[in-house]
Predict the 3D structure of the following.
Amino acid sequence: MAEKIMDDSKKVMWWSWSGIAVLAAIVAVVSWFAWEADPESVPRAREYRDYDICLLTGEAGLTEDEAKAAWTALQEVSLEAKVRLSYVAVTGEQTSAQAQKFVATQVQQKCGIIVAIGEQQVSAIGAVKDKYPAVQFIPAGKQVNGKVLADKVRPMIPAK
């Protein structure tokens, strides 16, 4: 009989500790979900306007000094005006005809301003600019001054 009482008290004790553990787990889960993060520490995504500036480069992309200078200047403009910025490097044969295909791609991606770096890219935008009157083209060529380029692009961006 004493053994049965001892077994019953062990069962009660086991159930008590199990209940406490389950309650602790429930409290921990509820606390985790109810805890609000400090709004200052929550990372936020940048919000951009629905406008795109695009850079067209030769096959070396942003590794050329001219393209780097243009990209840096356009990044500054992008942050100021809260517009998106992207670039495309012409791959394959480095001709105006090949570059025109990449210009068409940028137009399809709804680029409002296309900046061309390099001889073939400048030639390509000259050849197609009349086809796309809604797009503004900037032939930056090979001699890129970042400040001058940024000053050219800023007024071309539509007001908010």
Summary: The first strand starts at residue 52 and ends at 57. The two ends are 87 Å apart (CA to CA).
